[in-house]
Amino acid sequence: MSLRTTALAIVACHLLCVPARAANSASGSVTVDKLGTITVSHAAAYLVRDGHATRTEIMLTDVAVNAAGLQNEFNPHMAAINLDALKDRNYVLLWINADGSVSMNATFSKTMTQILDATSGRLKVTWTTNSPARADGRLFSGGPLKTMDGSSFTVDLKFGVDVPAAPAGTPLAAGGGDPGKALTAFIAAAQKKSWTAIKSASSPDALKTFDKSYNTPAENASDVLDLLKAWLPLEKMKITGGQLRGDVAILDVEGQMFPGQASMIGVSIVRMVKSGTVWQFDKATRVGMVK
Fold it and tell me: Are residues 71 and 119 in the same domain?
């Protein structure tokens, strides 16, 4: 055999002998007395915030979903559960923690009944792969379990899914730089209920939420403050850092969840967008507590 033939044979063997990477997939079910069975066949993964940390969320469904852009959403979890393909459908969410533990939420859409459990409770997990880029495992109950109302349920789910990388960006120091200064000014305007200042400090998308034609300017300003109280821990709030992604900044903020309760520190993220040379408030959401 010539050297060229030998080389070609080695290449062919390499191509044929290396196993193909498994595609995103799922199998198994969650079965609940009086509610029925959620059978899954598709899996999608994305990273979600958990306080200042992140964890992997895996959505298991019986239909294919377009998960390509989920990781770039401001709130991937909310974007996922509101996908058109999931309208009126049951699904299962899994949250993979850094230590390999798993939490589960099986949702029956007709009644919005949710079955919650975790490996810190009664569920069990075995891993084939659990890395930042890939999750292959089995979550199961090992037998019937009881819900609080006395119904029983069983869990046996297998999943294999690629985990996308978090969006790249430049870290922002405590205070958040110019985007942080703009957020501080926006919150001050909301607390003063200055509708003119709120409007100039808000992005076009934010104004779609804030500017209600049936309200007076004073009513709109008051509603904005109420929304911020729901989205942000305003009591003793501070900007702890964030990430700059071109003309978008994601700011991390924390503060007391309730006045006078210093031990209850909530964490939120805020999306600021740049318009020309000006940073404007765009979105905010709560993402957990300091642990």
Answer: yes
Q: Please say which residue of 129, 146, 162 terminates a domain.
A: 162
pLDDT at 17: 45
Instruction: List the domain range (segments joined by +) for residue 262.
Output: 170-289
Q: How far apart are CA 191 and CA 114, in angstroms?
A: 37
Same-domain pairing of 156 and 278: no
Phi, psi of 134 (to 5 degrees): -155, 140
Q: Are 39 and 91 members of one domain?
A: yes
**pLDDT number for residue 3:** 40
Diameter of the chain by CA atoms?
88
The per-residue pLDDT for 257 is 83
| Shared-domain flag, residues 139 and 238 | no
65 and 150 in a single domain? The answer is yes
Domain's final residue, options 162, 178, 207: 162
- What is the pLDDT, as a whole number, of residue 22? 58
Residue 162 CA to residue 165 CA, distance in Å, equals 10
Block mean pLDDT (10 aa), the chain, length 291: 44 42 86 95 96 95 90 94 94 96 96 95 97 97 91 96 94 97 98 98 97 96 97 95 97 89 90 97 95 70
* CB neighbour class for 212 (10 Å; exposed up to 12, middle 13-18, buried from 19): exposed
The Cα–Cα gap between 11 and 63 comes to 38
Closest CA to 287 of 57, 91, 51, 115: 51
Please name every residue paired with 28 in a beta bridge, in sequence order, or none if there are none: 157
